[in-house]
């Protein structure tokens, strides 16, 4: 955002009103233009003297339309006008007045946003920094996301770097679930078609869906999340990097089980998270058109489902998996077992050793496909045992040290 350096004696706000008014009436001739410019400047002077900053913002923004919608208008003129207008929030007599001014600016910048989108977003970020109100900051940031979602890659690139701080923003603003929901949804709309951001897209879909708990007001709003719930399932199935998720535990996803349109997608998620390759192949035979409609490639699904089946075997074995069990579950030949073991290890979902002599895979660690409340409870129990063992070890060490120190003291007394 440009910094205004006043090089004349005229107040910057009046200078902006004068220059934009002159531009607006340039084609009308001096007989018409001069009185109109004088009238607008006089009106601005009255607002300035009375400290009517909201009225001043309205007047200045009316002139900004000429610059916003004119392809030939220099960006520097528009940036100058909006910089001065944004600074009005620092003059406001209260946070409420500053917020109203900010809303006017946001409304102007998000109206007919096809032109100069990147500059509009830049102005909004400057407005964000000037606002004292946390709720105002949250509003302005969401408006910047809305603008970015309507424009191309250049505009999206302006906001994408800020996404890594979203959790900190949410905590700082102190916004509730409905506002968080709007925020996360806006982020997903930007990331959906942003190249190389599929993992982030899936992450924010999860954040959005997690804001629904299925109770209270959510019971009415949750129906609007069906499309995003299905999108999250498809992204999980597509991804060659994701082998674990908690989508099945989310009410926004669970509602798909009874939905005529999305029930097959929910069934596909259950197969990938709780069943093996055989179930997927049966599903694909009956739903090949549906899979193609969601852009899912059958061969890629088979690859992922084989790895998922291997994880399922690892979870049900006692640390050792016979080759024969792997060939059956993955529907492969004996000489392909080690290929899939290596593939699982390289995907960082399995740690194991291969006993070729005994035709066994000895598993030391594997990814759990579903990590929900039961898994958290199990982890808590294991950490409790671990904590108890550490405490016992510390007590034993301290007791031995006391005994050793006491023995040395007695030995000293005897020498004397």
Automatic annotation (TrEMBL):
Cell location: Cytoplasm
GO cellular component: eukaryotic 43S preinitiation complex; eukaryotic 48S preinitiation complex; eukaryotic translation initiation factor 3 complex, eIF3m
Swiss-Prot/TrEMBL GO biological process terms: formation of cytoplasmic translation initiation complex
Domain of life assignment: Eukaryota
Keyword annotations: Cytoplasm, Initiation factor, Protein biosynthesis
This protein's record includes keyword Protein biosynthesis: yes
The keyword Cytoplasm appears for this protein: yes
GO MF assignments: translation initiation factor activity
Residue intervals of the PCI domain: 200-368
SMART domains recorded: PINT
Pfam families xref list: eIF3m_C_helix, PCI
SUPFAM superfamilies assigned: Winged helix' DNA-binding domain
InterPro entries: COPS7/eIF3m (IPR045237), eIF3m (IPR027528), eIF3m_C_helix (IPR040750), PCI_dom (IPR000717), WH_DNA-bd_sf (IPR036390)
Quaternary structure and partners: Component of the eukaryotic translation initiation factor 3 (eIF-3) complex.
HAMAP family with a match to the protein in the record: eIF3m
Family label: Belongs to the eIF-3 subunit M family. Belongs to the CSN7/EIF3M family. CSN7 subfamily.
Function: Component of the eukaryotic translation initiation factor 3 (eIF-3) complex, which is involved in protein synthesis of a specialized repertoire of mRNAs and, together with other initiation factors, stimulates binding of mRNA and methionyl-tRNAi to the 40S ribosome. The eIF-3 complex specifically targets and initiates translation of a subset of mRNAs involved in cell proliferation.
Name by which UniProt lists this protein: Eukaryotic translation initiation factor 3 subunit M
Species of provenance: Triticum urartu (Red wild einkorn)
């Amino acid at each position: 955002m440009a910094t205004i350096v006043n090089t004349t004696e005229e107040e910057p706000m009046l200078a902006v009103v004068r220059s934009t008014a002159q531009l607006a009436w340039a084609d009308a001739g001096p007989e018409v233009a001069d009185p109109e410019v004088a009238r607008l400047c006089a009106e601005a002077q009255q607002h300035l003297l009375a400290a009517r900053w909201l009225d001043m913002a309205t007047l200045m923004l009316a002139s900004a339309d000429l610059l916003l919608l004119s392809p030939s208008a220099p960006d520097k003129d528009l940036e100058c006008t909006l910089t001065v207008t944004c600074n009005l929030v620092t003059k406001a007599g209260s946070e409420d007045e500053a917020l109203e001014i900010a809303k006017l600016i946001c409304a102007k910048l998000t109206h007919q946003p096809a032109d100069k989108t990147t500059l509009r977003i830049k102005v909004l970020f400057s407005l964000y920094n000037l606002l004292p109100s946390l709720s105002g900051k949250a509003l302005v940031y969401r408006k910047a996301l809305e603008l970015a979602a309507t424009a191309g890659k250049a505009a999206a690139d302006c906001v994408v770097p800020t996404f890594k701080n979203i959790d900190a923003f949410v905590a700082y603003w102190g916004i509730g679930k409905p506002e968080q929901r709007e925020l996360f949804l806006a982020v997903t709309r930007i990331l959906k078609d942003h190249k190389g951001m599929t993992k982030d897209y899936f992450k924010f879909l999860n954040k959005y869906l997690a804001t629904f708990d299925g109770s209270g007001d959510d019971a009415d709003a949750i129906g609007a999340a069906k499309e995003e719930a299905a999108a999250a399932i498809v992204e999980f199935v597509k991804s060659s990097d994701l082998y674990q998720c908690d989508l099945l535990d989310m009410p926004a996803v669970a509602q798909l089980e009874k939905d005529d349109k999305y029930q097959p997608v929910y069934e596909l998620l259950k197969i990938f998270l709780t069943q093996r390759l055989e179930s997927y192949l049966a599903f694909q035979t009956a739903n090949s058109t549906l899979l193609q409609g969601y852009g899912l490639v059958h061969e890629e699904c088979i690859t992922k489902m084989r790895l998922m089946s291997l994880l399922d075997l690892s979870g049900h074995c006692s640390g050792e998996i016979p080759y024969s069990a792997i060939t059956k579950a993955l529907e492969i030949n004996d000489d392909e077992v080690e290929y899939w073991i290596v593939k699982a290890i390289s995907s960082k979902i399995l740690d194991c050793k291969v006993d070729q002599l005994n035709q066994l895979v000895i598993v030391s660690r594997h990814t759990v496909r579903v990590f929900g409340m039961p898994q958290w409870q199990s982890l808590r129990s294991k950490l409790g045992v671990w904590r108890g063992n550490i405490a016992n070890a510390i007590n034993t060490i301290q007791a031995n040290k006391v005994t050793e120190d006491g023995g040395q003291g007695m030995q000293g007394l005897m020498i004397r």
